[in-house]
Amino acid sequence: MIQTDIIIIGAGPVGLFTVFEAGLLKLKCHLIDSLPLPGGQCSEIYPKKPIYDIPGFPSILAGELIDNLMEQAAPFKPGFTLGEAAMTIDKTADDKFIVTTIKGTKHEAPIVIIAGGLGVFEPRKPPIDSLEKYEDKGVEYIIKDPEFYRGKRVVIAGGGDSALDWSIFLAEKNIAKEVVLVHRSSSFRGHLDSVQKVIDMAESGKIILVTEAEVTGINGGDKLESVIITHQKDGEIIRETDHLIPLFGLKPSLGPIADWGLEIDKNAIKVNTLDYSTNIPGIYAIGDVNTYENKLKLILCGFHEGTLAVQSAFARIHPDKKNILKYTTVNGVQGF
Ligand SMILES: Cc1cc2nc3c(=O)[nH]c(=O)nc-3n(C[C@H](O)[C@H](O)[C@H](O)COP(=O)(O)OP(=O)(O)OC[C@H]3O[C@@H](n4cnc5c(N)ncnc54)[C@H](O)[C@@H]3O)c2cc1C
After folding, report:
1. For the chain, what percent of residues have pLDDT higher than 70?
2. Using an 8 Å Cβ cutoff, are 33 and 10 in contact?
3. With a 6 A CB cut-off, is 65 part of the ligand 1 pocket?
4. Of all helices (H) and strands (E), which one includes residue 237?
5. Is the domain of 154 the same as that of 258?
6. Which end of the chain is more exposed for a tag (fewer CB within 10 A), N or C?
7. Which of 41, 64, 66 has most ligand 1 atoms within 8 Å of CB, for mutation?
8. pLDDT at position 36 over 90
9. Verdict on whether the full-model pTM lies above 0.90
């Protein structure tokens, strides 16, 4: 049994910063994440994209932000259970919680903070026979490192911002040898600037744009070798490629947390904005996973929510102690 002061479910940016804020109050945290690496959406979806609205950083790559948050949390020695989804929560006789993961790892603490973001997220997969057979053998649903595609032929499927942005990036920086963008409509859902850029790059031959068409089949041996593209008017063509990247977004699903007796509204946990507590005393929800009036799913809002949640957690754990706000400039960071 792993014992700690606060169990944080979700090691995304918000969960990680909460370790720091809890540490300043001398509360120890243990994070659980179903992904094998910390960082949540920043690491999993867009590690190489710059973020422009983190206070004090005019621009920072999402992956760099996570590295910095890990460094900032390090003095407080957080524990990690990675690659395991939190499945169940139970209450003990002495008012603590036991959170058990899919692999049976048990964690005990008086406070649980859910920083589960979009939940246990799954990519939306197109209905193509044998698609799963070629996963990680030429079929990927997320671009983690664009360098992986250097010198390769890539077919991207989708019509939203991810499909447009990655097509532009891989072609403009001359990373991929060939970029084919396949979209079922002739209009796109992404930003107008990106749409225009893709059209311009298609005209100049930098991107091969195939609209009103869908990838309907894949072929290969041990690895992906070609895709079948079915055009609404012209029928099927076979295009040789090294990679197929369907970018149809992620299916947000709260997963097991939805069955924990928490008040849920549209796939998010309802909280009291006084301290981001849920309807179950001792359980808080912060970051993208929560909902309240005027909620903004932004990293900086999650940082604020985590900061207030740990103040409230301190009062629950130490009802007899008065917590006085101390500036880090005055007190420094006293690690564990
Ligand atoms: C392409 C893109 C660009 C973006 N750009 C910006 C931007 O410029 N500025 C900005 O502020 N925001 C941006 N965002 C939004 C930002 O990434 C999110 O607001 C932020 O990641 C939320 O952080 P979080 O820690 O709450 O959740 P997440 O980052 O979603 O992390 C939650 C973690 O919880 C884990 N988890 C969930 N359920 C369980 C469970 N049951 N057991 C174990 N683990 C679980 C997940 O695996 C995940 O790792 C962007 C998002 C995307 C997709």
Report:
1. 99
2. yes
3. no
4. strand 235-240
5. no
6. N
7. 41
8. no
9. no
Q: How far is the CA of 48 from the centre of ligand 1 (A)?
A: 15
Length of the chain: 336
336 in a structural domain: no
Residue 13 C-alpha to ligand 1 middle, in angstroms? Answer: 7
Distances (CA, A) of 317 to 28, 83, 128, 323: 12, 29, 52, 11
For residue 13, which atom of ligand 1 is closest to its CA? 25
Q: Is the pLDDT of residue 217 over 80?
A: yes
Q: For a pocket test of ligand 1, which of 8, 53, 299, 301 has the largest count of ligand atoms closer than 8 A to its C-beta?
A: 299
How far is 239 from 7, CA to CA, in rounded Å?
Answer: 49
What is the residue-averaged pLDDT of the chain?
Answer: 95
Measured by CA distance, the residue closest to atom 6 of ligand 1 is 51
What are the pLDDT digits (tens) for 279-326? 999 999 999 999 999 999 999 999 999 999 999 999 999 999 988 888
Q: Is the same domain home to 117 and 262?
A: yes
The CB of 116 under 6 Å from ligand 1? The reply is yes
Residue found by looking up tokens 């609404």 in the block: 232
Instruction: Look at residue 14 and tell me if it is in a domain.
Output: yes
Is 306 a pocket residue for ligand 1 (Cβ < 6 Å)?
no
What pLDDT, in 10s, does the model give residues 192-207?
999 999 999 999 999 9
Residues 304 and 225 in one domain: no
**Would the pLDDT of 120 be above 80?**
no
